[in-house]
Specification:
This protein has 3 helices and no strands. It has 76 residues and is an all-alpha fold.
C-alpha cells in the first residue's frame, strides 16, 4: 500500500507532467511566432516566452525535477 506522502508525490508529479506538456507546447508555438515576427518588435513575445520558461523551471524545482530545471538554467 502506498503511504499518503507517496500518493501525494505521485499526484503532484502527474500534475507537473500535464502542466509541462502545456508549457512546452505553448513555448514552441511562441518560438515559431517569434521567428515569423523577425521584422517586427518581438520583445513582448520574447518576454512571454521568458516568463513561461521561468514558471516551468520553478515548477520543476518544486517537484524535485532538478534535471528539467537545469535545462532552463542560464550557464554561468
Amino acid at each position: 500500500m502506498i503511504g499518503p506522502d507517496a500518493e501525494f508525490q505521485k499526484r503532484i508529479l502527474a500534475t507537473f507532467r500535464e502542466e509541462a506538456e502545456e508549457h512546452l507546447s505553448e513555448i514552441i508555438g511562441e518560438l515559431i511566432a517569434l521567428e515569423k515576427a523577425r521584422d517586427t518588435d518581438g520583445g513582448p513575445l520574447a518576454e512571454q516566452i521568458y516568463r513561461r520558461i521561468h514558471s516551468h523551471k520553478g515548477a520543476a524545482r518544486a517537484v524535485d525535477q532538478q534535471e528539467i530545471a537545469l535545462v532552463y538554467q542560464h550557464p554561468e
